[in-house]
Amino acid sequence: MEEIKVLQENGFKGFTSVENLKSNHECIPPVGGVYVVVRDTEDAPEFLEKGTGGFFKGKNPNVGIEELEANYVGSSRIMYIGKGNNLKRRIRQLLQFASGKNIGHWGGRYLWQLADSDNLLIAWKELPTTEDPHKVESEMLKDFFDTHGKLPFANLTR
């Protein structure tokens, strides 16, 4: 898939399924960087009325199917772009939220209403300490928006 190839050429590593990372996330480095969640299929998605995301602070992470359909970007396999000062910790939080735990990873919650969410791939890019993950993420979101006319499926704000 072309997008995955471009990500790899730009230094992204991992491309490991959510299912595998839930049981073993030791391969993720504990350093600052950015990460992407990729859907490695061109098949139309199946959306769930009720996903697996946690109810952080009692808030329901689920939205209606119409909203999911409106946010889906059919021209891209990139579902979410995130950042972290410690990739291992941040991606672990994402995975815990995916497993229904009440963890503070509200961003990306639409991912867990995809029927094939366990098959999503997560890849990360370590950044030198001189680069700010927030700035790199913002640039990636801007580039995505400029290319596709909207943000990735599960990114709700820039």
Count of beta strands: 4
Catalogue the unreliable spans.
Answer: none
* Broad structural category: alpha+beta
| Biggest pleated sheet | 4 strands, antiparallel
- The percent range for strand residues is 15-25%
Shape: globular
Number of helix segments?
Answer: 5
Radius of gyration: 14 Å
Mean pLDDT: 94
Task: Order the strands across the largest sheet as they lie in space.
Answer: 1-4-2-3
Separation, N- and C-terminal Cα atoms = 26 Å
The helix/strand series, from N terminus to C terminus, equals HEHEHEHEH
Helix content: 25-40%
Summarize the structure.
The chain is an alpha+beta fold. It has helices at 2-9, 18-23, 65-71, 87-98, 133-148, and strands spanning 13-17, 33-38, 78-84, 121-126. The radius of gyration is 14 Å and the shape is globular.
Kindly describe this structure.
It is a single chain. By secondary structure, the chain is an alpha+beta fold. It has helices at residues 2-9, 18-23, 65-71, 87-98, 133-148; strands at residues 13-17, 33-38, 78-84, 121-126. Strands 1-4-2-3 form a 4-stranded antiparallel beta sheet, with helices on both faces. The two termini are 26 Å apart. The mean pLDDT is 94.
